[in-house]
Amino acid sequence: MKLQIVEEPQLAFHQGKLHVDIRAGLSTFGAFDKGSTGVPVPIRIGVIGTTATVDGVRDWLEHCKRGVASDEQKLKALRPPFSWHDTTSIWNFP
User: Is the per-residue pLDDT at 13 higher than 90?
Assistant: First the structure.
């Protein structure tokens, strides 16, 4: 048996910045296509379900708008908190 170590791939973010962690990359640099003319702002989503499930999704998205905390105590760099740079341009709920 032959063991081969595969390096973690770099992910591309805004202005060609690279990072291996999607949350850290988005929080630090922003989305790859941020500011592109072809990207709709705000991003529209549709939710199909009962009133309770639709309200639950809306409440969860509103909660995420404030950021997502990390409960990691020892390896904080591996599970950083997550927040958006500009929540007003991507979150717009009727």
Answer: yes
Classified as helix, coil or strand, 19 is: strand
- Cβ–Cβ < 8 Å for 60, 93: no
- Domain-by-domain residue ranges, the chain? 11-90
Pairwise CA distance, residues 86 & 29, whole Å: 12
pLDDT above 80 (res 29): yes
Q: What are phi and psi of 63, to 5 degrees?
A: -65, -45
Phi, then psi, of 71 in degrees rounded to 5: -95, 10
pLDDT at 37 over 80: yes
Separation of alpha carbons 90 and 23, rounded Å:
16
